[in-house]
Amino acid sequence: MPFAREDGKRLDRIALIQRAPGTFQLARPFTFLEKGRPESERIVVRAHDPSRPAKGSNASDLASVPPFLWGLIASHGRQTAPALLHDQLWWEALNPDPDVWIAQRREADRLFRVSLRESGSTPLRTSLLWAAVTFERYWGRAAGRRWRWPLTRSSRSSRSGPDCSGSSAGSASW
User: Fold this and answer.
1) Cα separation, 164 vs 152, whole angstroms
2) Phi/psi of residue 67, each to 5°?
């Protein structure tokens, strides 16, 4: 049982508050313990503060999935708890020292992959989601960068590919 409620019982639901389209706050904390690890290594995924604005480390976009993958992967489901865990670890990894930052991000990405598999995510879904956050680690090294696909004809004519924009959702994602 990798994910659990704070009382130690199996996590059977995740309490989310939707603040805007694609922006959520975790209403109740839960925990994660990697299989085979001692209890002292249990990670508490903290609830967000609903009295503060839903942005940065106080919000999540769950698992950001680019539109071309929507038929294969939803932004929620078995990957919700791992995505919330990864969001928290992503924000905790921010560090001005690039060596520290990359080591902490590598561990966050590893735990994301492990938690996806331990939560019953399929190998294909796990690999796709993990590849996305790993790619982002190298491609979007600045905090809050993410894929943004041009959606209109006029925006396509002014760009040759994806661009970066700030993310207020706090996920290390597309």
Assistant:
1) 16
2) -50, -35
Asked whether residue 122 is assigned to any structural domain, the reply reads: yes
- pTM, whole model, 2 decimals? 0.76
Residue 146: C-alpha distances to residues 6, 12, 44, 132, 170 (Å) = 32, 30, 26, 10, 10
Q: Read off the pLDDT of residues 22-59 as tens digits, 9 standing for 90 and up.
A: 899 999 999 999 999 999 999 999 999 999 999 999 99
For residue 53, CA distances in Å to 18, 47, 102, 118 come to 12, 14, 28, 32
Q: Is 159 a member of any domain?
A: no
Higher local confidence (pLDDT), 102 or 42: 42
In angstroms, the CA 102 to CA 20 distance is 31
Give domain status of residue 166, yes or no: no
Domain total of the chain:
1
Domain membership of residue 47 as a residue range: 3-144
Is 72 among the domain residues? yes
